[in-house]
Design brief:
Length: 410
């Protein structure tokens, strides 16, 4: 229901801003631009869906082999104590547990192409045990909010962008980015835990979170001591080696159980194709709304308002040029990347703003995209507090990114 109101609001605000620009400022190009964006974003949404079709088909086929081979049971035993506390309503033998673990691990390794189809599989499996099929369950909301934090240990793509623009040290955003996304993850986890009355001070939960913190700290220390060329090379090789090793482990388990791997893969791949088709209308709906909102100039009005407010309060406004990237972050991944690149070009890749937009890009994931795709796949219409907690995650990550950028680069 909340997503319905926000979707309508994007169009209404865009229309009002467009009228203001046309009547009071004589901008005759605003409505053609808005209508043009509806067609462009509809095309983009469809193209993204088509791109997802192949990836979904591949990864859900591979996940079917892993599930049939027993990988889900192995992962459930390893992380069962934590999941019983964070997802208390999931049955102990629910296959979603293994998919959730694989999704979060893929995100942490920066392998978004693998994470999305596995995440959609997790949603489908949680929907099977969801008593109210049109309403988001507690486990679904917890999983979605953890996804919006986008916890990534090595923001390799961002470092590649910085290298392409000639940054003196492309990896200098590694430490603040990882800290920011970890803060976003904790904010999301706490917000959902409060709503679901989950005790995060349980010794088991603290032990797992403490171990994750130590792993992140160790990786930051390791990569901070390497030359830039080695950081990019080792993170790329390591991430993909781990991922391919997981695929081989699926095959090994399947062979051990004497499965017909090819037929098992085909069975899972068919599910991936069916899911991809379901995504298309939900993805196009949210992307068109965001495109119209942006084309109307509504984002520029908001930025201008923030700028005047910060000046009136006597605050430093050096970070204001990074706000378009920050405000776009929950709405559109491709839009955020475009604004990040634009800021690096305009202000310099090694400027405060140039570095800040990169840290913001690595601080969290795209809430509206995840909400539309993940819930749309399984027909969820009542999202309850998922959007609120997702936006809390985004805001925490963005605020942390701005503060950390001042600490590290100002």
């Amino acid at each position: 229901m909340v997503l319905n109101y926000i979707w309508i609001a994007f169009f209404l605000l865009a229309f009002v801003v467009g009228l203001v620009k046309l009547i009071f400022f004589g901008d005759t190009s605003v409505f053609p631009a808005m209508m043009g964006s509806t067609f462009d974003m509809a095309k983009t949404g469809f193209e993204i869906s088509i791109g997802l079709t192949g990836v979904l088909t591949l990864w859900l086929g591979l996940m079917k082999i892993g599930e049939a081979g027993g990988m889900v049971k192995i992962l459930s035993r390893l992380f069962g104590p934590l999941f019983r506390r964070l997802f208390p309503e999931l049955p102990a033998d629910c296959p979603a547990q293994g998919s959730i673990i694989m999704n979060l691990a893929s995100n942490m390794l920066g392998l978004g192409n693998a994470a999305t189809p596995i995440g959609l599989k997790a949603m489908k499996e949680m929907q099977e045990v969801n008593p109210n099929k049109d309403t988001a369950s507690n486990p679904m909301i917890m999983f979605l909010v953890l996804n919006t934090s986008g916890l990534t240990l090595i923001p390799m793509t961002i470092m590649v962008y910085r290298a392409q623009f000639g940054a003196a040290d492309p990896s200098d955003i590694l430490l603040p980015s990882v800290i920011a996304t970890f803060i976003a993850m904790l904010a999301g986890l706490v917000s959902v835990a409060i709503m679901q009355k989950i005790n995060l001070f349980n010794r088991v939960v603290l032990a797992y979170l403490g171990t994750l913190f130590l792993v992140i700290t160790a990786l930051i220390w390791f990569f901070s001591r390497l030359p830039q060329a080695d950081v990019t090379r080792i993170s790329s090789i390591g991430s993909n080696l781990i991922l391919f090793s997981v695929i081989i482990s699926f095959f090994a388990l399947g062979i051990r159980k004497k499965l017909n791997l090819y037929e098992t893969f085909i069975e899972g791949a068919k599910e991936g194709f069916e899911i991809a088709i379901k995504i298309i209308p939900y993805l196009i709906a949210i992307m068109v709304a965001i495109g119209v909102f942006r084309a109307s100039g509504s984002m520029d009005f908001i930025i201008s308002g923030f700028d005047k407010a910060f000046i009136a309060l006597g605050l430093d406004t050096s970070f204001v040029p990074a706000l378009p990237t920050a405000l776009m972050k929950p709405l559109s991944g491709s839009g955020t990347r475009g604004l990040m690149v634009e800021a690096m070009q305009s202000y310099g890749v090694d400027s405060l703003v140039g570095r800040m937009v990169c840290v913001i890009q690595g601080s969290a994931d795209t809430t509206f995209y995840i909400l539309a795709v993940y819930f749309g796949t399984v027909g969820i219409r009542k999202t309850r507090y998922a959007l609120t907690c997702g936006l809390i995650t985004d805001v925490a990550g963005i605020v942390a990114a701005i503060i950390l950028s001042y600490i590290f680069f100002a």
